[in-house]
Design a protein that fits this description.
With 576 residues, the chain is α/β, with parallel strands linked by helices. It is built from 20 helices and 16 strands.
């Protein structure tokens, strides 16, 4: 594989430079095929319950699905790793220990399985109406264009830039994974973010007129994009370090991109990316496709979506139009992996790159890469993944003789999350903390200033509580064009009834909880990074930002778990 790659692909790609341009979305099809696939899968599973529509269509506030006890608060996990100068291996150990201890509490009353995936697919976030988020295209001199979404913080201070490659059928649009991971990495983290469409996305196909997929090409494309961002991007001085993430099929780009990151260095000898994260990743393409198309429920839904996708693609493809006619697309879904291999390898051949169907599949199998990966690489997966089979992907990596004890590569293999929907199972707070802390652990140039906590006394009055009450949570809410923010204090009443006394404050029993609301002028929160939101999307983002970075404390301890009325606020810096 390495010889083939070096002699053909590198020879083609090494001469490329990249320029950025605005994407004329009016001319580009941005059908949300990714989310449509999840909806089809839900229907195939008999889980698309019409009466639950309003329940599933949630605007996430950045918090957990329910109140979390102080010991399992994701902020404590963050405190245990950020600024601690942990090695990569130590980070993995702490992360695994946290989820081993707290998974039961985090997932209590949450959404798992198919319903969790359905919940994940219906999060509401119209991020293209956020003033700091825009469409973006990376353009290569050979004509290749990679559509994306660029989200930049308001200030120009250098900070980590995270580049994310989304999964199968995913366009640079408001898709399920784009929405979820932009929330985690931009709203709930102090990073600038570039989300890139997958090569199977309809907008990518429309712009490039060809069929391309898999980590062999996307992993190296990520290296080239990263080099350009560091060297040629007009805002390169805003990058303190660069990090790469891949989701699902984009995870195939991530694991191979981590391998390429060790080999194809910057002119100064440094690596392009400080860290790589593969989220619910495809690690071996062929066995994944065989299993995917071979299963009953998922296979039928995925085959249906694949056929619809190819039928739409025939309107734009110029490299293999003869191979995506109705007569060529297989009717038997179990023949689809062979068909995809032929389609992709023929496309390569017609572009002057030597390939065969078997060679294509081998090149997209991480285990054919012989050199041990030395770039920090986290595999984040769930054992109940319905789409990318865990047993032939993440679990293999988890128990591999080389990587089981690797100093740089680690697997966080959780019980729940289904296909990349960790936030619906473990809550947005914990899910964002995993991504944020792994990047920060590998951003030593930035972490010290981020780790500095500032304080602001609470000066808006709070009636004294009796000992029968206990603080269990505080929620921020921002509103479009409003010059005030709302804080809701949630209070557990131990005397609220027998169930309250028996089950305690962290059981999620809403009948035992009362609330107090306070409205605060945003002008008095400016030092915390507050501002009047210009749009609903920006208000949603600020809500998630404040619920993530702000903590209410008393005398050096969390306010939650006490009945104090004398407290202050602390917050992490650089989110704004």
């Amino acid at each position: 594989m390495a010889t083939q790659f070096s002699s053909v692909f590198i020879g083609t790609m090494a001469v490329l430079s990249i320029c950025a341009a605005s994407l004329a979305q009016a001319q580009v099809p941005t059908v949300d095929l990714e989310t449509q696939f999840y909806q089809e899968l839900a229907k195939e599973s008999g889980q698309d319950v019409p009466s639950a529509k309003g329940l599933f269509e949630e605007v996430p506030d950045g918090l957990s699905t329910k109140e979390i006890s102080p010991g399992c608060d994701p902020r404590r996990f963050e405190d245990s790793v950020v600024g601690r100068k942990l090695t990569t291996a130590q980070y993995y150990n702490v992360a695994r220990a946290y989820f081993k201890k707290c998974s039961g509490e985090l997932t209590q009353r949450s959404w798992t399985g198919m319903l969790g995936l359905l919940k994940f697919s219906k999060y509401q976030y119209p991020f293209l109406s956020h003033p700091q988020v825009k469409e973006f295209t990376v353009k290569l001199p050979d004509g290749t264009r990679v559509p994306g979404i660029l989200a930049l913080k308001q200030d120009t201070r250098p900070r980590p830039l995270v580049i994310v490659k989304c999964g199968v059928f995913c366009s640079a649009a408001q898709t399920a994974s784009m929405k979820s991971y932009l929330m985690h990495l931009f709203d709930q983290s102090p990073f600038n973010v570039l989300l890139l469409a997958n090569q199977t996305g309809m907008d990518y196909i429309y712009l490039n007129k060809r069929v391309t997929l898999g980590g062999w090409s996307e992993g190296f494309e990520a290296i080239e994009v990263g080099k350009w961002m560091l060297q040629k991007w007009e805002h390169k001085d805003r990058i303190s370090s660069l990090h790469f993430m891949g989701i699902s099929l984009g995870g195939n780009a991530a694991v191979l991109g981590a391998a390429y990151n060790d080999k194809y260095l910057l002119p100064n000898g440094g690596k392009v990316y400080n860290s790589v994260t593969a989220i619910c990743p495809v690690i071996s393409l062929r066995p994944t496709l065989d299993h995917l198309y071979g299963t009953q429920t998922v296979g039928r839904a995925f085959a249906k979506m694949t056929k619809e996708h190819f039928k739409e693609a025939r309107n734009y493809v110029t490299d293999v139009p003869d191979l995506i006619s109705d007569s060529k697309i297989p009717s038997n879904r179990r023949d689809m992996p062979d068909y995809i291999a032929t389609l992709a390898s023929t496309s390569l051949q017609r572009r002057g790159i030597a390939s065969t169907p078997s060679a294509f599949m081998k090149s997209n199998n991480f285990w054919n890469w012989k050199d041990e990966v030395k770039t920090p690489l986290m595999i984040w997966a769930s054992k109940d993944d319905m789409v990318v089979n865990n047993g032939i992907n993440a679990e293999v990596m988890e128990h591999d003789d080389v990587y089981e004890k690797s100093a740089q590569v680690g697997v966080l293999n959780l019980k729940y999350g289904n296909h990349c929907g960790f936030s619906s199972s473990y809550g947005a707070q914990a899910s964002a903390a995993v991504l944020r802390t792994f990047v920060l652990t590998h951003s030593p140039e930035f972490v010290d200033s981020y780790d500095t906590k500032q304080q602001l006394p609470w000066s808006w009055g709070f009636k004294k509580l009796s000992s029968q009450y206990e603080h269990i949570g505080q929620n921020w809410h921002f509103f479009s064009n409003s010059n005030q923010a709302k804080v809701v204090f949630r209070l557990f009443n131990w005397n609220g009834g027998r169930d309250c006394a028996e089950n305690g404050p962290w059981s999620g029993n809403g009948t035992c909880v009362s609330t107090r609301e306070y409205w605060i002028p945003i002008s008095q929160l400016k030092q915390m990074g507050a501002r009047v939101p210009r749009t609903d999307a920006e208000a949603q983002a600020l809500t998630r930002e404040f619920n993530t970075k702000v903590e209410f404390r008393i005398k050096g301890h969390p306010l939650n778990g006490t009945y104090s009325n004398d407290f202050y606020m602390t917050w992490r810096s650089h989110f704004e």
